[in-house]
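Helix-turn-helix transcriptional regulator
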Amino acid sequence: MKDSNIQSCHLGPEISPESLIQEHYFLYLLKGSMKAYDGHKNYEINPGDCYLARKNHLVRYTKLRDNGSFEKIIITFDEPFLQEFFHRHTYPVQAPKTQDAFLSIEQNKLIKNYIQSLSPYYSGDQQLDETFASIKREELLLILLKSAPDLANIFFNFGMPHKAELETYMNRNFRFNISLKRFAYLTGRSLSSFKRDFQKTFDIQPGQWLKKKRLDEAYFQISQNNHKPSDVYIEVGFEDFSHFSFAFKKKFGKSPSALLPITKA
């Protein structure tokens, strides 16, 4: 598709690294399936499912092909578009009631007809020019707000993330390998305030706490659940396996693989 705010995706990486959702987007799955995790909740998305992915949420996801195929439609609602829309339309806005990264959208006739109207574009038969793409985005936004008025609390909340309770947030999201600056923003703080509040809460510097927390989680997953070290290191927030192995042995006095049960030939 020509317009980057309405696009179809056929392949792409099957296992994602940590990802911060930069803008709200509407997701409709055509073929294949997805499994996603946002730090506290797992999601399974199947063909025909509609979801709203929420801005400023951390996620990790896996794409599963069906007979070699994976296709989805993504329609992005970036902040300038939403602000311009909100300027022309009046919707009451309150604090969101949920912190889930993905919100399931119940399909109705309006949504089904809308998806059907995009068929010539996501099938590749035609290109969608920028002007028409903006109209189709606004049409979808109106349909979603008519179908679920509470979504206004999500779409039109233009402030920075609220100041999160630090202990709860970090214990939920320590597995995501993002910078301290990003953690600070997502918890509603400047970097200096984040470091200061973190020290008061945990009595340790954030970098040291993250390393310890991730290694302890890896130890548990390997020793108690028999997970392979090569699978665990990314899941707990390490980028490099050799660095993970070195840090693990330094902390626990043995390599990660030494915790696995010995299999008899």
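thats it. The domain at 166-259 is CATH 1.10.10.60 (Arc Repressor Mutant, subunit A). The beta strands are 6-9, 19-20, 24-31, 33-37, 42-45, 50-53, 58-64, 71-77, 102-104. bye
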